[in-house]
Amino acid sequence: MNITRTAQKSKNSPAFEVERIRADFPILSLRVNDKPLVYLDNAASSQMPQPVIDRLTRYQTTQHANINRAVHYLSEVATSEFEEARRKLQAFINASNEREIIFTSGTTDAINLVMHGYGRKMIGPGDEIILTTLEHHSNIVPWQMLAEEKGAKIRIVPINDAGELLIDEYEKLFNSRTKFVGATHVSNALGTINPIKEMIAFAHARGVPILIDGAQAAPHIKVDVQDLDCDFYAFSGHKLCGPTGIGILYGRAAILESMQPFKGGGDMILSVTFEKTIYNTIPHKFEAGTPPIAAAIGLGAAVDYLSTIGMDAIAAHELNLLQYATEKINSLPGVRIIGTAKHKAAVLSFAVDGVHPHDIGTLLNQDGVAVRTGHHCAQPVMQRFKIPATSRASFAFYNNIREVDALIDGIRTVQKVFT
């Protein structure tokens, strides 16, 4: 990764008031093992600011009812707030129509919806699906299930030693049998930002639809699905300062209308007899049963919060943190960064010579530093680098330079213990 700014410049970002922002997050005042919490596991789940917590409380205490079910006051209010959250998500990713926003339980659920609703209808024996080496298991396993069921084949885009996709190889994988592409926007294991706009354009020029796993992108960089021209885009609320159990599938309206529902039940129908069911229009066709109403409203509040700060400002601050942390880790003998792409989000996976990642995580935790250790549900990435696991520090806009320094001090302590 090219470092273009000095650590001193990273420390002085007057336009971004990180300490004021940190005051919005109650959990950041927590102490762990009598040390200040240093939360660097944001790729797994981000923390929730007070405005989102307050919004959830307001819904639960003054607005809670089931939606689309009754004409009484609370039901009408809850329905209105739920649909307003949908419009907020539409604006957040610049979808052309609110009908293109489907509430799911998260990215995994969204990808499975596409696999069942589109894949099972459109992919048959001998057809091919292109995935990348960088995919999370959530964008591998559903397609493996489909390929096994349909007699289809999965083809994989390789990566180089920096953790970057080999785009020439991606292009070579296309042929007359290629029917679908699934690609991550940002690698959860390495932080690599993939050139998805170019990948989408190449696929579309050959009439192939493409799904983008945006779980690691939507919280950190500005996403414009119309500019990207993607067919599907999925992300999760809990990585976006929102609640767990909620996520979004964006789908191009024409494709969604052609798809089969993933789940059957209430609210996804227009009429039901024992002879025939007529499905509802999109997006409701894909939202069977009582949805996670409070979580959707909370996610709407989360994107309000992020939009107030500004996604460009968030991305710039996190890049400063990444650059500073990269310089510091590269200065440590015996520590190696796994994934050195030129374009990265704020994820640092690293290995310490002679120390297992789980031991690193355990010792860092003693100092209150929370990182993730393991294969990060991206085992093909680990296999590519011939390692079982990494330690991963992932930053959010509420992290600061002091916390990076705490991570570096913790790694030094790990090295002292194991030498």
Write the layout of secondary structure elements.
Elements: H1 7-11, H2 18-22, E1 31-32, E2 35-36, E3 38-39, H3 50-62, H4 73-93, E4 101-104, H5 107-122, E5 128-132, H6 141-150, E6 153-157, H7 167-172, E7 178-184, H8 196-204, E8 210-213, H9 225-228, E9 232-236, E10 247-251, H10 253-258, E11 269-272, E12 277-279, H11 293-309, H12 311-330, E13 335-338, E14 347-352, H13 357-366, E15 369-370, E16 372-374, H14 379-384, E17 390-394, H15 401-417
Coarse structural class: alpha/beta
Helix count, per DSSP? 15
Q: Describe the biggest sheet?
A: 7 strands, mixed
CATH class of the largest domain: Alpha Beta
Strand order of the largest sheet: 4-10-9-8-7-5-6
Counting DSSP E segments of at least 2 residues, the number of strands comes to 17
Fold-level CATH name of the largest domain: Aspartate Aminotransferase, domain 2
Kindly state the percentage of residues in helix: 25-40%
Task: Compute the separation of the termini in Å.
Answer: 29 Å
Shape descriptor reads globular
